[in-house]
Write a structure and sequence with these properties.
The protein is of the alpha/beta class. The protein folds into two domains: 201 residues, Spore Coat Polysaccharide Biosynthesis Protein SpsA, Chain A; 85 residues, no CATH class. It contains ten helices and nine strands. Strands 1, 2, 3, 4, 5, 6, 7, 8 and 9 form a nine-stranded mixed sheet that branches. Strand 6 and strand 7 form a beta hairpin.
Length: 335
Amino acid sequence: MSPMVSGDCHLFTVVIASLCDDARGELLKRACESVRAMAGGNDYSIIVVANGNRVSSSVLSWLATRSDVRVIRLRSGSHPLARRVGAEMAEAEFLAFLDDDDEFMPDTLIRKVEHFRQHPEVDVLVTDGLRVNGARQSRIFPPPEARGSDLVETMMRTGWGACALTLRTKNVDLGAFDADFRHLEWTLITLDLASRYKFGFLDEPTYRYYEDTPNSLSKRAEHSFAAPEVWRRLSRSYAGTRYEDMVRRRYGRECHNAAWESAIQGRMRDAWRLHIESLRTPGGFAMLAISAKLLLASVRAWIGGGGSGGTVRVGTNDGGGPSEEQQGPSRHPAH
């Protein structure tokens, strides 16, 4: 029997931001069907926010046949804005998100609801998922032996996507959903929420994240340049907490990574700015190894550009390059 909810409020609402064009049509249908299977007969609704100027009339016609789907149209082609709008329009006890090329796993809603019922102090629930690439599947959350006892620390070493979070809607301020932040926004949202709300963890996969979807893989450079701002903001969120040093160190590493990426692209002024910032963070002097390489690259750029700071390419195998730490979902739909 489905859990009862009062008035027009649903038990569970899923927001899907989508371009709703013909190329995404079949994927969006799969996503919507997965929500129905996930609910397993329990009360739910879907909000599809069709954003941008490529919306297909045939896709909208199919959505119109679904009694469980509400469609919202946005002229702006912005998934972060679309998710925020969808979340603000949701009227449900619990709120979740799904990318249009991923899917929830069947009959998993009831276990999420049970966790919330058993733990009334929990505001946000995170769950594990399956990373799918062709025939290969693997768990997204680190295995138990790699987690440690602190959930927030583990979360800081994990990549985040739309499918992992479920919110107790009335408890959570949606201001954490920055409509203008377009890269690594789920890392920012998740960890910002974790600094202010009580999180729970359900140690089982509840969604499939398809990292091999055509035209949906983020460019590494875009993520690299966004990461310092993500961790700079998180440094403010975690200031004065036991996590402050960890977050500041991560900020320094991301500045280092972005400095290296800037140097590869010949943007030496940005490379030096980010490199100097990395040196100011805890443990930053470990980044000094790149100083000589940046100096050499700057000299080459000056000579090659006739003294005007021309472009130079830094080989990615020169050493001192980006450090990798975060694992998990890291792609955004192409716009």
